[in-house]
């Protein structure tokens, strides 16, 4: 510019403001006037607005006036230009400066829609992944129920916070069908770490489709819910039951106990696969000596192994017990017994008895506490009629033989004895294989 006078420069600037900045030379004039202390504040604001428009103009990307925009005194800006200033800064990849500006704006300066546009633009740049300011404003929009899909996805990728907040965000994300990324996994980790597991079921339902069945979090969830189900009667969710059925033989004992209990309580709903599973659990329970007493109910749905025949169970639960013995009397005959119960699970003790038809026992528990105390507690009555007794089994024949002997009927007794000895499995089982 040939003219050096302020009036000349102002005249040139007035034309720029009316027509818009079209030349790079205009930038030098405007920036020079902005720094001139003689310029009135309202006019300086107009010049800043012109620079903002220039910065946002697609054809002027080669002109960088970012440093002047950063120093802009925006107190006199309209809401429109406050929003444009943020867009201009983001367009020049000055994200943090733009986000810091938001902090200093009044609440009325930006609508939620303005903030959504700002955050969506910033989130497009990988360098802003996990940016604390974007996270804070994204969460604010979530609280206002104004977050867009892109803002919610940013939260899904990077938000870590309270269990309640993560669960709430996940619910909204699922409702709006936004990719959840690994938010459910992070939320489940927080739940286990903080022991706040109230929302764990919904987190698991969302996490399961994205996970491998061998995932430690899947196993941890199943163990936790199995413990709560078996020890505290907490209901298992549909997904938990389904996953337990697939993995039960690779999981800790508590999962086996919980699922076997669930199956016993839902016999009427069992299909062919469920019955096959119950049969396998019963066999493994016998082989590993971890029979769940409720399995005796399976007799109404499947053919149980012969080891269950005429077997009844006493069970005792007490977290403070170190050892538990069961003592009582078998009737008739008044046979007194005292047996140390096996610990099925910490705090759960069991003992089995084989009782034939007409036999019954009355028993109590002798509890040895972890604190050294010894107390006796009432048990109950078990009857041989409660056990699984099938006509044609060796136990049935033994019961029948005993009855005939008691009736002193020699002919009937001989016939019963013949039937009994003809059963190869009985002969082998009692006298050893190959006994004639």
Describe the structure.
With 436 residues, the protein is α+β, with helices and mostly antiparallel strands. It contains 19 helices and 7 strands. The protein has helices at residues 6-19, 24-34, 41-56, 66-70, 79-91, 95-104, 112-123, 132-143, 149-158, 163-175, 183-194, 200-207, 216-232, 238-247, 253-265, 272-288, 394-406, 410-421, 424-431; strands at residues 311-317, 321-331, 335-340, 342-345, 348-354, 360-369, 374-383. The strands form 2 sheets. The protein has a 4-stranded antiparallel β-sheet with strand order 3-2-6-7, with no helix packed on it. The chain has a 3-stranded antiparallel β-sheet with strand order 1-5-4, with no helix packed on it. Strand 4 (342-345) and strand 5 form a beta hairpin. The longest helix has 17 residues, at 216-232. It is rod-shaped, with a radius of gyration of 40 Å.
